[in-house]
Design brief:
single chain; 6-stranded mixed β-sheet
């Protein structure tokens, strides 16, 4: 069973609801129009089709309409995701969503805070061959905000883990806007480090001490293992910022998924999806826009790479 996460970079529909970024107000001089929308849908669909995950968490979806349009494009391209959900209780500009070939037992939206500066987390429960597991789709505060804001989301996850039970099969996916070793990277950045060195992804989620490969990791209940440690260091990235590779997108698992009994993570299966066509020069071939004025060029994909991992279900 393959589980993935993909930040699709601003998939906006063509309805005007007043929350759009300026360059995504439909049918204005920025050329966010039917032609460019269809190209964007087709391009994102290509990537998702090639990954062919059973469950994929998505970030930066504007609306249920945008999710449905993507799902229809995928269907036209030969991949059918029967089950879908978007976290749309809160009118944030962009939201997280999930597409699945496996039916939901339920979906549930975790409200991080009432403020629009925090995006809700989407929780989906599944049952496959008698094995229950939970997938939580995240999109934490961007690096425009300090670490204290990402800690709010991390604490909300741990509160939810306490409610579900630490021994449950829990998979966290998404754009955490945090590297797997954020505690090292952010120390030099004063505008991020407003927490005396404490990070959401490493300290709150408890990944700090677990840097071995998955087969050797010994993770206590109540902490998470970041799957990036289960592949070679040069492969640990999903984003390129000014020529530097970063791993903003992560898949983390609860300890029960490291045990070889029942459902478990398949060793060394974590990877970012990186065919040649998703790169341009030294960077990722993101959706292309002119600088000034901001006009859509009708080509490109996303500024993030998708990340995938496989799980064994007996």
């Amino acid at each position: 069973m393959k589980i993935a996460t993909y930040n699709v970079e601003n998939l906006f529909d063509l309805h005007r609801n007043g929350h759009e970024y300026k360059e995504f107000i439909p049918n204005t001089r920025s050329k966010w129009n039917l032609k460019n929308y269809r190209i964007k849908l087709k391009n994102i669909s290509r990537v998702i089709k090639e990954i062919d995950a059973d469950i994929i968490g998505l970030e930066e979806i504007e609306s249920l309409q945008a999710l449905k349009d993507l799902r229809m494009q995928l269907k036209r391209d030969g991949v059918y995701y029967q089950y879908f959900k978007i976290a749309n209780y809160k009118n944030t500009t962009i939201k997280v969503a999930i597409l699945s070939k496996i039916p939901f037992v339920y979906t549930h939206e975790i409200a991080v805070q009432s403020s629009y500066r925090y995006r809700n987390i989407l929780e989906a429960k599944f049952r496959v061959q008698g094995e229950e597991f939970f997938v939580l789709v995240n999109h934490w505060k961007a690096k425009s905000g300090p670490e204290s804001m990402r800690i709010v989301s991390a604490k909300k996850i741990m509160k939810r883990v306490g409610e579900l039970g630490e021994k449950k099969n829990i998979i966290l996916v998404g754009d955490f806007n945090s590297d797997y070793e954020e505690y090292i990277l952010f120390k030099r950045k004063r505008k991020h480090n407003d927490t005396n060195g404490v990070t959401g992804i490493n300290h709150v989620l408890g990944t700090l001490e677990h840097k071995e490969s998955a087969t050797r990791a010994n993770v206590p209940y109540g902490e998470f293992y970041n799957l990036w440690y289960d592949t070679a260091k040069p492969k640990r990235y999903s984003y390129i910022y000014r020529g530097k590779k970063e791993a903003l997108d992560n898949i983390l698992i609860s300890p029960s998924l490291l045990h070889k009994k029942g459902m478990h993570y398949k060793a060394h299966s974590i990877e970012s999806y990186k065919p040649a066509y998703l790169f341009k020069g030294r960077g990722i071939y993101r959706w292309q826009m002119s600088r000034k004025p901001r006009v859509h060029k009708g080509r490109g994909y996303s500024d993030h790479l998708a990340v995938t991992a496989e799980f064994v279900v007996h």
